[in-house]
Specification:
The complex is a heterodimer of chains A (290) and B (334).
Chain A (H helix, E strand, L loop, with lengths): L7 H20 L2 H26 L3 H9 L4 H32 L1 H7 L4 H30 L15 H31 L3 H14 L11 H8 L2 H14 L8 H32 L7
Helix pairs in contact in A: 1-6, 2-4, 2-6, 4-6, 4-7, 4-8, 4-10, 7-10, 7-11, 10-11
Chain B lengths: L4 E16 L3 E17 L4 E5 L6 H8 L7 E6 L2 E2 L4 H6 L1 E4 L12 H11 L4 H14 L15 H12 L6 E5 L7 H16 L3 E5 L3 H7 L2 E6 L2 E7 H7 L4 E8 L2 H8 L4 E9 L2 E8 L2 H14 L3 E8 L3 H9 L3 H6 L2
Parallel strand pairs in B: 3-8, 3-9, 6-7, 7-8
Antiparallel strand pairs in B: 1-2, 1-4, 4-5, 9-10, 11-13, 11-14, 12-13
Helix pairs in contact in B: 3-4, 9-10
Classes of the chains: A mainly alpha (290), B alpha/beta (334).
Chain lengths: 290, 334
């Protein structure tokens, strides 16, 4: 029998194979990719049109007084696009576990010598690629449809720095975000239910991260809860970089430092809880029972 | 040692919820395995038999690290299932869930490639191994179709192929011929025999007694979480201590009848006439091994033998004696 001891290279190969497997699977549902772009635009269009209907010509001015930007269309589009990344992270990770449990492939994964964290990393990479693609495409297409300058307020002509900062916030937010999805995955493994949990979480997440409004509107305790949630920092970071609404700590690098602190804590906590849940499940009924 | 399994005092208790109406439930402990001790030797085909709920799936899941035992120790290929689970996984090929456990939106080849990656095979080795398996199982025509388009039997074959991807010294096959048509099942059994001839140890569960009887070197019968019997099939049959009956048709004289009665182990020999043919019924303590002696005695006494019908003790008889029911009965009840 050949020696198949895992090396760093072979573990990375598992990550890529897992990403590839999911990309191949989604490529067999081409309509889904189109919907990925449409959903955040529709999602943002609802409050935009509601705002226009209720505030009329004063919509931009009233919005600027509360948020710091008159570009409320881009504000909503950024909110719904970042929410797409966050929502996909939870859907893909939780649904990945549930789907593999139901189709029997989860047991097949556990039969192999690959640690699940590498398969999860592959799933996370796939989810990132799909989420970022959808968010970017939806933001740009949405700006075209709703006839708005997507970077108005922050990025000036000829300067790509705000775009770079916005990307930095998204990329830095992804790691703590996927750490949190491991916590959620552990819950799915235990309660053997994904859809209802995710549906419930979606509303809580979208509310807490302030996809359509600044979290300054929250009462103090709720605001604190929102600030403990990495996607809130992601959304505000992108908005501040592109629209100039203002970072929580005034300077972009201070807000980014908070995300990096989450980056250290959330994945470790997520992994620890997931590993403990795995052991608990294997002590009793096993991962394949659903 | 590679290809071996050692199970010592293995017990497994689950907690299940007993539903009592709409919202009420009660936790209950279920003992799935109770102090099972057995061993599987390198290079053998080891059958695991038992009615539904007997504990054999639990045993297999512990051997393959899917479940953690409550107590007891298990070594697979020389590795401890709790302390060296990755080594166990790397050295076992499993087919546990039949046609489940495959990605239906991927092709057969893509499935094999993905599972090869999970077993840390380098890309070139994955490609080569996938090709070998596709050729071995004659899946060439369908290898590039998505699995969702496969027939049930084709999915089973691919699931079997997946178990071979890491070229492990020990294969655990849980009812691999389920849903296969007769020729495909026979073909798969032949492949299992070939793999065994190449030195692989095989743990095989089946509901088909004839399959276990023809394929396995040794079997274990498990019921209610306990090991009821373990040994070579002939030993298990002999352990029943039953008299066996051999019916011989032909021209059999009184002298031949007397000669048969002198053969050691023969308890009773009677001669009847049936539609012009004489029928000799011999009841023997060890009819299977006595058959050559009976034939020799009859021949020397000038008898003309036309037909011999030994009524042997079967594995099914052993199963019934140990569990109190037939495996077929139990399978139908599922």
């Amino acid at each position: 029998m050949p020696d198949h001891s895992p090396t760093i290279r072979s573990r990375l190969a598992v990550v890529l194979a897992s990403t590839r497997m999911r990309l191949l699977t989604i490529s067999r549902y081409p309509g889904q990719l189109l919907l990925d772009i449409v959903i955040p635009i529709v999602f943002a269009a609802m409050p935009i049109l509601l705002g226009r209907a209720t505030a009329g010509a004063d919509a931009a001015a009233a919005f600027a007084a509360n948020t710091g930007t008159t570009n409320y269309v881009a504000y909503m589009l950024i909110g719904s696009s970042v929410f797409m990344i966050v929502s996909y992270a939870f859907w893909h990770m939780a649904y990945w576990l549930r789907w593999e449990q139901e189709t029997g492939t989860l047991e097949a994964l556990y039969l192999s010598p690959t640690h699940r964290i590498w398969v999860a990393a592959g799933t996370a990479l796939y989810s990132c690629l799909r989420g970022i693609f959808s968010a970017l495409a939806a933001f740009l297409v949405g700006s075209l449809i709703l006839r708005v300058q997507p970077f108005g307020g922050g990025a000036s002509a000829g300067s790509f720095a705000p775009l770079g900062v916005a990307f930095l916030f998204i990329l830095s937010g992804l790691i703590p975000l996927y750490g949190m999805t491991l916590l959620f995955g552990a819950l799915v493994l235990k309660v053997k239910e994904a859809n209802a949990l995710i549906n419930l979480m979606q509303w809580g997440i979208s509310f807490l991260m302030g996809i359509f409004f600044p979290i300054a509107f929250f009462p103090p305790l709720l605001r604190l809860a929102a600030l403990l949630f990495p996607p809130t920092w992601m959304t505000n970071g992108v908005r501040s970089a592109l629209l100039g609404v203002g970072f929580f700590f005034r300077e972009w690098y201070l807000d980014l430092a908070v995300l990096w602190a989450f980056m250290l804590v959330a994945p470790l906590l997520g992994y620890w809880v997931f590993a403990r849940t795995e052991v608990s499940v294997r002590r009793n009924e096993g991962v394949g029972q659903f | 040692m590679l290809g071996t399994v050692r199970v010592e005092g293995l017990s497994k208790t689950y907690t299940v919820r007993q539903r009592k109406g709409l919202f009420k439930s009660e936790k209950r402990a279920v003992e799935a395995l109770r102090g099972v001790t057995l061993d599987v030797q390198a290079g053998e085909i080891f059958g695991l038999l038992g009615p539904n709920g007997a504990g054999k799936t639990t045993l297999i899941k512990i051997l393959t690290t899917l479940l953690l035992p409550t107590s007891g120790d298990v070594w697979v290929n020389g590795y401890h299932v709790r302390k060296q689970e990755n080594q166990v996984r790397a050295t076992v090929g499993c087919m546990l869930m039949g046609e489940r456990g495959l990605y239906w939106k991927l092709t057969g080849r893509e499935n094999l490639d993905y599972f090869g990656a999970l077993y840390h095979l380098p890309p070139a080795a994955r490609k080569r191994r996938s090709m070998e398996i596709i050729d071995l199982l004659a899946l060439g025509d369908i290898a590039d179709r998505t699995v969702e388009t496969y027939s049930s039997g084709q999915k089973m074959k691919l699931a079997f192929g997946k178990a071979l991807i890491n070229d492990a010294p020990l294969l655990v096959l849980d009812e691999p011929t389920n849903t296969l048509d007769v020729p495909s099942a026979s073909e798969l059994r032949a492949i299992v025999r070939d793999l065994n001839a190449q030195g692989k140890t095989i743990i095989y569960t089946t509901h088909i007694m004839a399959e276990a009887e023809t394929l396995c070197d040794r079997v274990a019968i498990i019921d209610h979480g306990q090991l009821l019997a373990l040994g070579a099939i002939d030993e298990l049959k002999a352990s029943l201590g039953r008299e066996q009956v051999v019916r011989i048709e032909g021209v059999i004289s009184s002298r031949a009848l007397d000669a048969v009665r002198q053969v050691p182990g023969v308890r009773q020999a009677t001669r009847t006439s049936l539609e012009g043919t004489e029928l000799l019924t011999v009841v023997s303590a060890n009819g299977h091994t006595n058959l050559p002696l009976l034939i020799a005695a009859l021949s020397q006494a000038g008898a003309l033998i036309q037909k011999i019908s030994p009524e042997e003790v079967t594995l099914e008889d052993v199963f019934i004696a140990k569990t109190g029911r037939t495996l077929a009965e139990d399978t139908r009840a599922r």
